[in-house]
Structure formats: structure tokens, C-alpha cells
TrEMBL record:
Needed cofactors: Fe(2+)
Keywords assigned by UniProt, alphabetized: Aromatic hydrocarbons catabolism, Dioxygenase, Iron, Metal-binding, Oxidoreductase, Repeat
Descriptive protein name: VOC family protein
Family according to the record: Belongs to the extradiol ring-cleavage dioxygenase family.
């Protein structure tokens, strides 16, 4: 039975490409692989494109790109989606070139953004290894994908059912916490077949933006602290200070992107073995740190 391998790329619509160019390279430590009339392609490893930025006043999430292992698995997965009544479209040749993939399909999320499913990514030449402008190490990607995203849900139960029953993502755990008097966060976390604790999470919230945050994971703990210092020095609003999550065991901080949604820079984190995993519900987002400076 076909199943998603990993969250392999994310597309963002941003209003200030120049600011994002600087931010992605000098704060996050990504590498620009291409810039043209469509926007900016960003590398985190040997993949030619892990994030792409398109000039767009929406300043929000556009696309989540899910990778399948083989062309046959992709076709089987898409057939299952259609059997469930999901309208699925093949990407045009132009979009395939822009995504730098061999074959891909797309469908709409209940919350207003696009999910793409693909096979066959483009990799850089051997001589062109990933070089971060600022990281001491690199990003944790490979089979685990790029990290994770947390898009807000307009309808929590409908969104959870879509991720679990339609996309066939696996529930990792839940967190239910009152972060302010009368403000309850009820978040559900999902992982793919390769086991990064979560590639996507969701929580219902009355907000104009879809994306709450994206997370990237680094190989060296020092790179979290150094990124924190770079963000503070640059005057970037820190949303959650350095801290630790009890469910995925990640050490991280959160800060604001130039588009107003947030990013998380993390180190550590669980890789789930489903044969030995118990789904739990937690009562707190953080077991230490993560002092809140800006309302999420």
C-alpha cells in the first residue's frame, strides 16, 4: 500500500523577496540555488530545491510537497486519493520544471493550501555540495525530509480527518494546553513512513494566516544557539525563547519570518519506530524554557 515517504519541499508566497533572500541565507543558513522571475529556490542538502519563495502578497504557505519512493507508489497513492473522492490534478510540464521533480500531482487542503505528491527530485552535481553561509554543521534532512510545518485549521476535526484518513499520515501524539486564560491549543502531530516525529501538525485557530510556523532541524546544537544570537542581533522578534518540547524532545527557539509567520530552529528530536510507539496526549507544549514573547 502506497504511503508518503517524507515532506520534501515547501513553497511560500512572500511579499519581500530581497528580505527573504537575506533572511534565508544569513539567519537560517540555507543556500540559494536559483533566482529567476518566478522567485528563489533554496537548498538545505543535495536536493536542488527544499524551499521555494514566490513573489506574492499573501505572505503565507502555498504548497507542501510530499515525496513517494517510486513512480509506481506515486500512481497508486494518487489512485487511492481519487477513489476517496479527492480531486487530483497532474502538474504541468512548466510546474514540474519549477518544482525540479519528474512527476507530480496536486490537491487542495481543507484550509486553503495545496498538497503536491511527487517522485523523482533533482539533485545538485557532485562537485556542488551544499554550503551554508553560516551553519557550523548542516541540516537534518535525508529520509526525514525538511523538518515540519504547522498550518492552522479552520475546522480542527475535518483537518485531522483529512491528514489521517485521506493523506494517510500517522498520528504521533497530541498536545492540549491553555496558553492564555481561555485560549486552548489543541494540536495533533503527524509523521510519515520514515518516522520524523512530525512532518505536519495542526491546531484550530481564528487567524488570517494559514501557516503558524515551519521548523528546520540542525545537526549541531550550537547552531541553534548561534541562530538565536543572529536573530537577536538582527532585531528579529523572538516568539519563544530557547526551550524544549516534551513530545518530540526537540531543543529549539521560535522567531518571526519577514512574512509574519514564524520559524522554529531545532536540534535533537525523535524518530518514531511505529512498532514500539504509543500515542500519548500531553498537557504542555514545553517542559522547560520557550518563554513566550510574542503571541503565536
Amino acid at each position: 500500500m502506497a504511503e508518503i515517504h517524507s515532506l520534501a519541499y515547501v513553497g511560500l508566497g512572500v511579499s519581500d523577496l530581497e528580505r527573504w533572500h537575506w533572511f534565508a541565507t544569513h539567519i537560517l543558513g540555507m543556500q540559494v540555488s536559483k533566482r529567476d522571475e518566478h522567485g528563489i529556490s533554496l537548498r538545505m542538502d543535495e536536493y536542488c530545491q527544499r524551499f521555494f519563495l514566490e513573489q506574492n502578497p499573501i505572505d503565507d504557505l502555498l504548497v507542501a510537497g510530499w515525496q513517494l519512493r517510486t513512480a509506481a507508489e506515486l500512481e497508486s497513492y494518487v489512485a487511492e486519493l481519487r477513489d476517496k473522492g479527492v480531486p487530483v490534478e497532474a502538474l504541468s510540464d512548466d510546474l514540474l520544471r519549477r518544482r525540479m521533480v519528474e512527476k507530480a500531482y496536486s490537491c487542495q487542503d481543507p484550509n486553503g493550501f495545496t498538497h503536491e505528491f511527487f517522485f523523482g527530485h533533482t539533485v545538485a552535481e557532485l562537485a556542488d555540495s551544499f554550503r551554508s553561509p553560516v551553519l557550523r554543521g548542516g541540516f537534518v534532512t535525508g529520509d526525514l525530509g525538511i523538518g515540519h510545518i504547522l498550518p492552522f485549521a479552520k475546522n480542527g476535526p475535518q483537518t485531522v480527518a483529512f491528514y489521517r484518513d485521506v493523506l494517510k499520515l500517522r498520528v504521533s501524539d497530541y498536545i492540549r494546553e491553555e496558553i492564555h486564560p481561555g485560549v486552548l491549543v489543541d494540536a495533533t502531530f503527524f509523521h510519515t513512513a520514515t518516522g520524523r516525529h512530525h512532518s505536519i501538525a495542526t491546531a484550530q485557530a481564528p487567524t488570517p494566516k494559514v501557516l503558524n510556523h515551519f521548523m528546520v532541524q540542525v545537526e549541531q546544537m550550537d547552531d541553534v544557539g548561534l541562530a538565536y544570537d543572529r536573530a537577536v542581533k538582527a532585531g528579529i522578534p523572538i516568539v519563544l525563547e530557547l526551550g524544549h518540547h516534551p513530545n518530540d524532545k526537540t531543543f529549539s527557539f521560535y522567531a518571526q519570518t519577514p512574512s509574519g509567520f514564524n520559524f522554529e530552529m531545532g536540534w535533537g528530536g525523535i524518530v518514531i519506530d511505529d512498532a514500539n510507539w504509543e500515542v500519548r496526549a500531553y498537557s504542555e507544549m514545553s517542559d522547560w524554557g520557550h518563554k513566550r514573547n510574542v503571541v503565536l
